Amino acid sequence: MIELPTLGWQSIVILVVFGVSLLIATYCTYAERVIAAFLQDRVGPDRAGPFGLLQPLADAVKLFTKEEFFPAGANKALFIMGPCLAMITALMSSAVIPFGNVIQFGNNVFNLQGIEVNIGMLWVFGIVSLGVYGVMIGGWASNNKFSLLGAIRAGSQNISYELAMGLALIAVLMISGTLSLREITLQQSAAGEWHFWNIVKQPLGFIIFLVCAFAETNRTPFDLPECETELVGGYHTEYSSMKMGLYLFAEYVNVFVASAVMSVLYFGGFNFPFQYELRDWFVNSQGWELMSAQNLISVLGLLGLFGKIFAFIFFFMWVRWTLPRFRYDQLMRLGWTILIPLAIFNILLTGGLILGGIIK
């Protein structure tokens, strides 16, 4: 068997992943409005195209055609670099996510993953950590006190919640024994049953990770860096045109990546219940070749993973239109005095359960 994640195939997968990430981010703006309208019992976007489906394209045209604006005294190079860095880091973190199992054609095996590295979890964590520099650079280069305050809030918020998120990941690492996202996913595929997923073994760790994901993506109730009532628009107050659009789309790409990572780490990734029984049924009852049946399972797993991702994205938006924004002191207190101690307790509890042979 010749395994071909060749450079060409990997490049194609990475480009497709980047394109899908941007497409989902674009239509997340539409979904945000539709879900908000549903929750608030009003009519959402319905003018641009049938059911308002062309609204994201209209927004993109508006952003591209708006006037370019540079504040007086701004550092132009850094002012442009900020939103670019925010978007680049958001897209790079999606390159190592395993979106599906392998697909085989003859002797060629294709991996539905851009880059397979044995430190995939550290890759995502490191790239996400770099994303705050895009916010910090943009806020500082704007030469605006409100932008600078928003950037400082973003930096302190990310530092505070990355600690708890990292501690939550350590518990998953203790169970899986690997940093590879593909290996973590495959370990949850035993017998194809959902009770082998890490959400069963790590419910507390998942809750900590979920809360930290809201803070890392600057989503309500943790959107203090762009708090309109206090900071006008936050770190992107002085931005216009597509530079503003890059910041907005980067936030939705981060929501997509966070949803994908949570699906992979805690909800089995591309695994779904009874996948092996379904494969054997196609082979034994329908006379399919094993390779064809496995390819079908891989495609269904890909669709299942995106179903989990969309469920998380809906949850992100549901929370935004349901919960009020925290005060800044409440946000910091939650991160340092509640989530970090809980994450440390979760590590100790997981270690005890592993030593006792209760979880493996």
TrEMBL record:
It catalyses: a quinone + NADH + 5 H(+)(in) = a quinol + NAD(+) + 4 H(+)(out). It is a multi-pass membrane protein. GO terms for cellular component: plasma membrane. Pfam families: NADHdh. Its main location: membrane. GO terms for molecular function: NADH dehydrogenase activity; oxidoreductase activity, acting on NAD(P)H, quinone or similar compound as acceptor; quinone binding. Keywords: Cell membrane, Membrane, NAD, Quinone, Translocase, Transmembrane, Transmembrane helix, Ubiquinone. It comes from the Bacteria. The chain crosses the membrane at residues 12-30, 77-100, 120-142, 163-182, 194-215, 252-276, 296-319, 331-359. Its EC number is 7.1.1.-. The keyword Membrane applies. It is found in: Cell membrane; Membrane. GO terms for biological process: aerobic respiration. NDH-1 shuttles electrons from NADH, via FMN and iron-sulfur (Fe-S) centers, to quinones in the respiratory chain. The immediate electron acceptor for the enzyme in this species is believed to be ubiquinone. Couples the redox reaction to proton translocation (for every two electrons transferred, four hydrogen ions are translocated across the cytoplasmic membrane), and thus conserves the redox energy in a proton gradient. This subunit may bind ubiquinone. Belongs to the complex I subunit 1 family. HAMAP family: NDH1_NuoH. NDH-1 is composed of 14 different subunits. Subunits NuoA, H, J, K, L, M, N constitute the membrane sector of the complex. This is NADH-quinone oxidoreductase subunit H. It comes from Hymenobacter daecheongensis DSM 21074.
